[in-house]
TrEMBL record:
Name under which the protein is recorded: Zinc-type alcohol dehydrogenase-like protein
Sorted UniProt keywords: Cytoplasm, Metal-binding, NADP, Oxidoreductase, Zinc
Organism classification: Bacteria, Pseudomonadati, Pseudomonadota, Alphaproteobacteria, Caulobacterales
Family: Belongs to the zinc-containing alcohol dehydrogenase family. Quinone oxidoreductase subfamily.
Location (main, coarse): cytoplasm
Superkingdom as given in the UniProt entry: Bacteria
InterPro entries hit by this protein: ADH-like_N, ADH_Zn_typ-1, ER, Quin_OxRdtase/zeta-crystal_CS, Zinc-ADH_QOR/CCCR
């Protein structure tokens, strides 16, 4: 089958950073689906893995996580899906990725694609929706009926765009997002943020200037080391900060005298470690799909780069590395 991948770490400016090649057909495990990939979504993780992955055998490694497609085969123990189902998912980091004609993926991390979305629109959602949902409910353990504030640092990014919507659709939290440009501010408001503050300066000062109360929950989605001291000053007593990015060097002791917590969200943990609650990702994607079809959540796709080729995928990785994208980027299948 046709696939796109990498043979060693290369900068995206290298014309060989991503190459097309013929890959063997996926081998199904008992609970695997074989999916004909119709569209893929891009995330910063795609670019980070490309820039660091060194395949041990020298053979090309298939990259890609977010995908939407059609089930064309099932493993011997599959019970949640059937051939012909349209699905979406984010895959896992330790198996061949979605930048191929077909992909094997465990049914426990797959959801039925929202009927109201195209494949590309659906492919823009899984990784960010899973990350946002797990961060809010599983890591920070936010209550759905709490009269508290959630601060979303980086509201216009992929995860921020999903988190704003999920929080508004499923909780009573007051959602305050951060942004530094007029277009990202408006994007966050359009997605449902109650208010938007500027993160180009100290975030605690911006919160105070806006008259916002101390947030019980802070989702630190970007530049955590830069913002951490301000977030520690801003967090409510006994609140919690959740991060998804590289927080190397942060001084968590700054939270000590508020008895505040700091947690990580890594959405690949459940499938990589085959945790007993791995099916939680299937369940939350099922709920996200329902919310989309009910009109409570919308796709965050802002750019479709067309058919998946080494050149179009390279452009997508360049956009991911720019750090200036709003919402999500997707491509149609090979």
């Amino acid at each position: 089958m046709k696939a796109i991948g990498t043979t060693r770490p290369r900068p995206i400016t290298d014309s060989s950073a991503l190459i097309a090649f013929d890959a063997p057909e996926p081998t199904l495990r008992p609970r695997d689906l074989l999916v004909q990939v119709k569209a893929v979504g891009l995330n910063p993780a795609d670019a980070k893995v490309r820039a660091s992955r060194q395949p041990e055998d020298g053979k090309p490694s298939i990259l890609g996580y977010d995908a939407a497609g059609v089930v064309v085969g099932v493993g011997s123990e599959v019970s949640l899906f059937k051939v012909g189902d349209e699905v979406f998912y984010a895959g896992q980091i330790d198996r061949p990725g979605s930048n191929a004609e077909r992909q094997a993926v465990d049914e426990r991390i797959v959801g039925l694609k929202p009927k109201s979305l195209t494949f590309a629109e659906a492919a823009a959602l899984p990784l960010t929706a899973i990350t946002a949902w797990e961060l809010l409910f599983d890591r920070m353990k936010a209550g759905r009926d709490e009269d508290e504030t959630l601060l979303v640092v980086g509201g216009a990014g992929g995860v921020g765009s999903a988190l704003i919507q999920i929080a508004r659709a499923t909780t009573n939290l007051r959602v305050v997002a951060t942004a530094s440009r007029p277009e990202t501010r408006q994007w966050s408001l359009d997605l449902g943020a109650h208010a938007v503050i500027d993160h180009s300066g100290p975030i605690d000062e911006a919160l105070a200037a806006a008259g916002e109360r101390a947030p019980k929950y802070i989702a630190s989605l970007t530049q955590t080391p830069k913002h951490f001291s301000a977030l520690a000053r801003a967090i409510a007593v006994q609140g919690v900060i959740g991060a998804i990015d590289d927080a190397t060097g942060v001084a968590v002791t700054e939270l000590q005298y508020k008895a505040a917590g700091f947690v990580w969200e890594v959405m690949f943990v459940r499938p990589v470690h085959q945790t007993p609650d791995m099916i939680a990702q299937h369940n939350l994607l099922t709920e996200v799909s329902r919310l989309v079809d009910a009109g409570a959540i919308r796709t965050t796709l802002t750019r479709n780069l067309g058919p998946l080729t080494p050149q179009s995928l390279q452009e997508g990785h360049r956009l991911m590395e720019s750090g200036a994208t709003i919402g999500k980027v997707a491509l149609d299948g090979i």
